[in-house]
């Protein structure tokens, strides 16, 4: 079946099946918006407002400094280690402005993890927040990198006014000691410089960012992305999920991750929206910001939505301004989606993407959402399902590995000699092997079953943990659940369910749950072990670290 025919009956009316490729650079997106909307608020950060013209001016100052004072060459890798803040956005676009490469680093990482990324990417300059200077400095010393310049930022430099919310940890002014071996400059001092001369190549195929995978299935891998791969996603997203220009967008996802970077920074900047920026997730702060700034759109993850529906109090919280809620990362439980619908009259627009694809390749059409699915492949995306044993292409409702070909696809992993094993040639096109098990239905909607590496093999039965998780979410009293396989001498593996209850969970609850499971799933799928925990281990993006539960 041709791709066009597969999706025809579900495809949004009036939408083309492909878009012309964008020949601009990401830096020029900001330049365009600053020219078009100079007085429009670009960022609001805990009450502090920055217009598009002010944002672009500071970007030019940082870019000019990097070029003139540090004499950086095209293609050099520059690290950013900080929580969400205006300096992250300014730095990001300044680096792109001088044709260098952004390496965003998760600020939650520890010394050994940071060492790996610094060494792997051969970073030559680092922008770092004051609360992360100690760990970055320790990492540099461990690597004996004695000549890497540090540009140090203070979050409080962009919080000028009193704001009626609790500020995140690490936001107070901090003194720091870098010793004598490292060149460093304070951000505030750079902004005093008025010489911001630099040139920008305007090359859409130039390497511009290397985001690293989380490393949940091995060592982190840097994904090589160009202006074109980044802009392909930005333009596809705006066409698929149009957001009114000048409306307010809530940014809660971390900007170092491609989902937050694209959906909550790059997309709104090109579209001329106002980014209401949160440094860290906090449900009460989110409620406050939604009400105060009449937030209309919010891209999030399942974890945050669970917090929303469980914490909402109609007497205290006004979220009536919300017109669009969506995201990805983990499948949305039907119970939570139903609660959200009842609360807001909004459907959760679920999507799917990877670091390798610079965020979404699939999104539900907002006019025709299918709960539980990741939606349809976006413009220019060729998505297929291959048999995991024979590599033959599969048809409707057949589970296999999802492979993707698209102009948004990365160029390969940085500094890796084994890139070929992650790709497959099919129909004369190069596809990326996602490692995700999926299928599509008769309407062309895709459903992710699980990670290939998560599959449980019990007595020859292939068991998908996410399937069991979805079923268990329907049991009253379960807040969160993660299903894993554990070793078993007789069956090879057996199913274990780790549960976070909504309240207390007694022995009678266990007996009732086991009886309930026997009525809702096949015998071989029923968990043999149930474990109660107060919380599940998660990364910064809210993804459950299932390997830590073994």
Keyword list:
nine-stranded mixed beta sheet; five-stranded parallel beta sheet; alpha/beta; 2 domains; GMP Synthetase, Chain A, domain 3; Rossmann fold
Summary?
The chain is an alpha/beta fold and 550 residues long. Helices cover 28% and strands 24% of the residues. The relative contact order is 0.10.
Describe the structure.
- This protein is α/β, with parallel strands linked by helices.
- The chain has two domains: 26-363, ANL, N-terminal domain (Rossmann fold); 455-549, 2-Layer Sandwich (GMP Synthetase, Chain A, domain 3), CATH 3.30.300.
- 28% of the residues lie in helices and 24% in strands.
- The chain is built from 14 helices and 26 strands.
- Strands 2-1-11-10-12-13-14-15-16 form a nine-stranded mixed sheet, with helices on both faces.
- The longest helix has 17 residues, at 52-68.
- The chain is globular and about 70 Å long.
Give the strand order of the largest sheet, numbering strands 1, 2, ... along the chain.
2-1-11-10-12-13-14-15-16
Radius of gyration: 24 Å
Count up the domains.
Answer: 2
Helix segment tally: 14
Classify the secondary structure makeup into a structural class. alpha/beta
User: What is the fold named in CATH at topology level of the largest domain?
Assistant: Rossmann fold
Termini separation:
41 Å
User: What's the overall geometry?
Assistant: globular
> How many strand segments?
26
CATH level 1 name of the largest domain = Alpha Beta
- Unreliable parts: none
Percentage beta strand? 15-25%
The CATH architecture of the largest domain comes to 3-Layer(aba) Sandwich
Largest sheet: 9 strands, mixed
What level of helicity do the residues show?
25-40%
Which superfamily, in CATH terms, is the homologous superfamily of the largest domain? ANL, N-terminal domain
- Average pLDDT, rounded to a whole number, is 90
């Amino acid at each position: 079946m041709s791709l066009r025919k597969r999706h025809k009956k579900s495809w949004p009316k009036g939408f083309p099946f492909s878009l012309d490729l964008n020949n601009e650079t990401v830096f020029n997106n900001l330049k365009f918006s600053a020219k078009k909307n100079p007085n429009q608020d670009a960022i609001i950060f805990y009450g502090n407002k920055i217009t598009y013209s002010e944002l672009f001016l500071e970007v030019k100052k940082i870019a000019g400094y990097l070029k003139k004072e540090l004499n950086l060459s095209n293609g050099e890798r520059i690290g950013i280690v900080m929580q969400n803040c205006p300096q992250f956005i300014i730095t990001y676009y300044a680096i792109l402005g001088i044709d260098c490469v952004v390496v965003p680093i998760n600020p939650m990482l520890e010394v050994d993890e940071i060492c790996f990324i610094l060494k792997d990417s051969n970073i030559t300059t680092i922008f770092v927040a004051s609360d992360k200077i100690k760990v970055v400095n320790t990492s540099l010393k461990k690597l004996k990198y004695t000549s890497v310049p540090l540009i140090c930022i203070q979050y409080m430099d962009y919080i000028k006014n009193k704001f009626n919310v609790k500020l995140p940890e690490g936001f107070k002014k901090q003194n720091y000691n870098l010793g004598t071996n490292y060149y460093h400059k304070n951000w505030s001092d750079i902004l005093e410089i008025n010489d911001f001369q630099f040139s920008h190549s305007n090359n859409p195929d130039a390497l511009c960012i290397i985001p690293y995978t989380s490393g949940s299935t091995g060592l982190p891998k840097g994904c090589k992305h160009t202006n074109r791969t980044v802009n392909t996603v930005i333009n596809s997203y705006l066409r698929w999920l149009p957001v009114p220009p000048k409306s307010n967008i809530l940014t809660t996802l971390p900007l170092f991750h491609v989902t937050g970077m694209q959906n909550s920074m790059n997309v709104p900047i090109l579209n001329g929206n106002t980014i209401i920026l949160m440094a860290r997730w906090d449900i009460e702060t989110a409620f406050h910001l939604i009400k105060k700034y009449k937030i209309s759109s919010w891209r999030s993850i399942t974890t945050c939505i669970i917090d929303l529906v469980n914490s909402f109090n109609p007497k205290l919280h006004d979220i009536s301004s919300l017109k669009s809620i969506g995201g990805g990362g983990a499948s949305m439980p039907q119970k939570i989606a139903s609660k959200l619908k009842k609360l807001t009259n909004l459907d959760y627009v679920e999507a799917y993407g990877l670091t390798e694809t610079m965020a979404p390749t699939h999104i539900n059409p907002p006019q025709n959402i299918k709960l539980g699915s990741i939606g349809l492949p976006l413009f220019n995306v060729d998505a297929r399902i291959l048999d995991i044993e024979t590599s033959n292409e599969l048809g409707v409702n057949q589970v296999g590995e999802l492979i993707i070909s698209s102009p948004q696809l990365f160029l390969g992993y940085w500094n890796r000699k084994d890139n070929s094993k992650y790709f497959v040639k099919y129909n004369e096109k190069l596809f990326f092997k996602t490692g995700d098990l999926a299928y599509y239905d008769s309407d062309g909607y895709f459903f992710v079953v699980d990670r290939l590496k998560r599959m449980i093999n019990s007595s020859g039965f292939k068991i998908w943990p996410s399937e069991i998780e979805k079923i268990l979410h329907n049991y009253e009293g379960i807040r969160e659940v993660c299903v894993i396989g554990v070793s078993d001498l007789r069956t090879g593996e057996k199913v274990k369910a780790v549960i976070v209850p909504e309240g207390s969970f007694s022995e009678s609850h266990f007996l009732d749950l086991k009886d309930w499971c026997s009525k809702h799933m096949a015998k071989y799928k029923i968990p043999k072990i149930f474990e109660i925990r107060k919380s599940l281990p998660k990364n910064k993006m809210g993804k459950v670290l299932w390997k830590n539960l073994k």
